[in-house]
Amino acid sequence: MIKVSNEELSKITQFVAGCNDMINGKFLLADIKITKLLNMIADSDELYSYIKECMTDFDFSRELHRAEVKNRLNNGEFLVPTNPNSLVAFVFCLLVECDAKRMDFYNFISENFASENKSDAYKLFSQKILVPFRDAVASHFATTGATTLEVESMTNSLKNDLKTAPIFEQENSNFVGNFSQNGSAMQNDASAMQTNQNEPVDEKDKIWKEIPNICENIENSVYSERHIKSYLKEELLYILKTIKYCTKYKDVKILSALVTAFDEMSHKFRSVQFVLGELKNKIEFLY
Predict the structure, then answer these.
(1) Cα(176)–Cα(172) distance, rounded to whole angstroms?
(2) CB 179 within 8 A of CB 239
(3) Looking at the 3D structure of the chain, how many domains does it have?
């Protein structure tokens, strides 16, 4: 498990979110987002050191030749390196070459990800190159909290509590999965609102205001994770929507219940778990 400072963790989380933004973005805006990603790497000591490590003894020209569609051994496919470190080094070099205009980004996509239109070609590029790159980075820096058994134990009781908590009192008529709505008003637990004397109140208020933005990053990660089934994706997005809504009540118990349920449901998806880590860290400061 890689240990990084909170500041660096925040930068890495923003980088993963930036990858998601590029994955879900438009073909014509890609070059701008490449520059943005490279600037994020340069601004993070941990990301920079990790990629520098991946670059040791790496030969981009050789790996590009091996990967290209025109390589007869590839049977018409673009094949990225299977080793995670080599993959990270490969995609980083590719982005640098495109950003420096030594390689034409749009020609590269047209030649290696041929499709009926540019939008579909870009989607193929994203899934084949950007998604594995994002996942490799997220996996390298991923941190773990409670054990699986602890999470399951907590989640079983918290899910039961959730069933009686109508988070959307007026807006919602469709609670997904186990998170069904009843007719009573949401009750705030006064004890969860007690202020820690060692921590300023305004700092907690700041955290509550940051949570919706963190949820937006997690949503992008859920949208771009191709391995999540549609029904599960719907449930995860609904929980995130609920988390954003419940911040107005500043109820830590409800927030923890939602995050624990989300954590259990998304534990197989490293890219989602990584971005979720920032939200977990914020919750710790609210107690």
Answers:
(1) 10
(2) yes
(3) 2
Of 116, 141, 166, which residue is a domain's last?
A: 141
Smallest CA-to-CA distance from 216 within 31, 21, 38 is with 21
Distance CA 69, CA 5 (A): 41
Structure tokens at 54: 């991946």
- What is the per-residue pLDDT across 195-250, written as a single tens digit (0 to 9) for each? 444 444 478 888 899 999 999 989 988 988 888 888 888 889 988 988 888 888 88
pLDDT digits (tens, 9 = 90+) for 107-147: 899 899 988 888 889 999 999 999 999 989 988 887 333 33
3-state DSSP helix/strand/coil percent for the chain, to nearest 5? Answer: 70, 0, 30
Burial of 202 (0-12, 13-18, 19+ CB in 10 A): exposed
Where is the domain boundary, 109, 141, 173? 141
| The two structure tokens encoding residue 250 | 């500043």
pTM over cut 0.85: no
Long-range contacts of range 121-128, CB-CB < 8 Å, 24 or more positions apart?
Answer: 121/27, 122/26, 122/27, 122/30, 126/22, 126/23, 126/24, 127/23, 127/226, 128/78, 128/80
In a domain, 72, yes or no: yes
